[in-house]
Each structure stands twice: as structure tokens, then as C-alpha cells.
Amino acid sequence: MMKYLFFVPILLLYGCATKYILAGNRFITPETQGGALNGTIEVQKTGATQLTVNINQSNNVEGAVIITTARTGFLYNTSFFEQFDFVWSHTGSGNSMLGGKFQFIGPSRTANGAGHKFALAGLFGGNNYETDDKAVKFTLGGTEYLAIYGYRLNESVLFYSSFSHADYLFKGKITSSNPTLNGQRPNLNTRIRALYAGIELTYQAVFLKVESGYQELVTTDTKDFTHTITGVSFGYAW
Q1: Which residues of 22-46 are buried (b: 16+ CB within 10 A; e: fewer)?
Q2: Tens of pLDDT along 19-29?
Q3: Where are any strands of DSSP class E within the chain?
């Protein structure tokens, strides 16, 4: 911990303290919306992780400093047909992720059928960023795959869990008056494996989700990082 605190003023000194956010809770359930253009929109307060590019005493880029944080986000779903949803997920200061979800087992959300549910989902996204002082330009690309299981007790209560595997790639370029730093192109890859469990409570067109998860982050030149996260989501269905 003391080592990480020592690196912070070095990063600030050279004006290129590059921070980026990786998503935590996704709140994706196994149910599709059912039927063309049925959908949901929800606002979330989600757990997340913040990575800061780490510069060592020799002014070399060396992995990342990782801390837990919380962000506001949203999730939008709309059905193209009974078993397939388009998904748009965004976490504040992180990537927008677009993709789809296919439900293999169980009736859709609008069918209100109780019982077992199972779906597979994939999300993809990438954004370009620049620090305020323009010292660092970088891209952050990501892919995430989810296997999602749930059990609906009745039209009001759905229990669900998911396994997620994600890869994020940070690619940057540093511009600095320090010749050792100037022109460096740090590339950091983070693999995230996670297990989530949640409950969705529905009343007519509105719903509430509470979700907790366990994440393992493996990042280039960085000690592996594990933590638990919890988030809350409130939404509306049509």
C-alpha cells in the first residue's frame, strides 16, 4: 500500500495520471423482453474498479494501481424477437458496451412464466480518451461474455445469477517534457472473471434489482486483485 501511495505524487508531477474505469455489476437477467420492440430502461448505482497507470521511480510505465469505486450507469434492453434482446450497457466514466442476449430456456419477461431461465450474452465496446492536460491519449476496448441462469417464482420475483468473462485493453501514448516518459506507449490488458447473484422485484411496469458479485482482475505487470461489489438498479418496462 505504501508503495502505491508513493507513486501518486510522481504521476501528478508529470501531469499524466491516467485513470480509467472498468465495470462491475451488469444487472443482466436471463429473460428477454419478448416480442418485437418490448424493452426496459434502468438507472443504476453500481460497484466498479478504477485503474491508474503506474509510473515507477525510473519513469517507466509499470502496471496499474487498482481501487474499488462506485458509479452511476444505465442498462437498456429491447427485443428484436421473442428470444433475442439488443443490450446497451454504460457505466459512468467507463466504456459503452453494445451487444445481445439470447434466451435458450424458459419464457420471456412479458410471458410472466415461472420456472427456470437460461441465456447467453455478449457485449463489445471501445472509447477514445484524453487527459485534461492532453498529456495522455488512450483507447480502452472491451469484450464481455455472460452465462446467466435464473428462477422466477412468480410475476413479481426473479432470482438470477451469472458468470462473466471480460477482457479490457488499455492502449495509450504519453506526451511529456520529461524525455524518459515522452513517447511511451503503455499497453495494459485486464482480464475479469466474475460471479454475480441478484434479485429482481417487479410491480406492474417498474422493477428494482439488487445484485452482488465477486470479481478477479488480472492486469499486465500488476498484482492480481479480487473484491466483492454490490449495486442497485431501478427501471421501467414496456
Answers
A1: bbbbbbbbbbbbbeeebbbebebeb
A2: 999 999 999 99
A3: 19-23, 39-55, 61-81, 84-91, 96-105, 115-130, 136-152, 157-174, 187-203, 206-219, 225-237
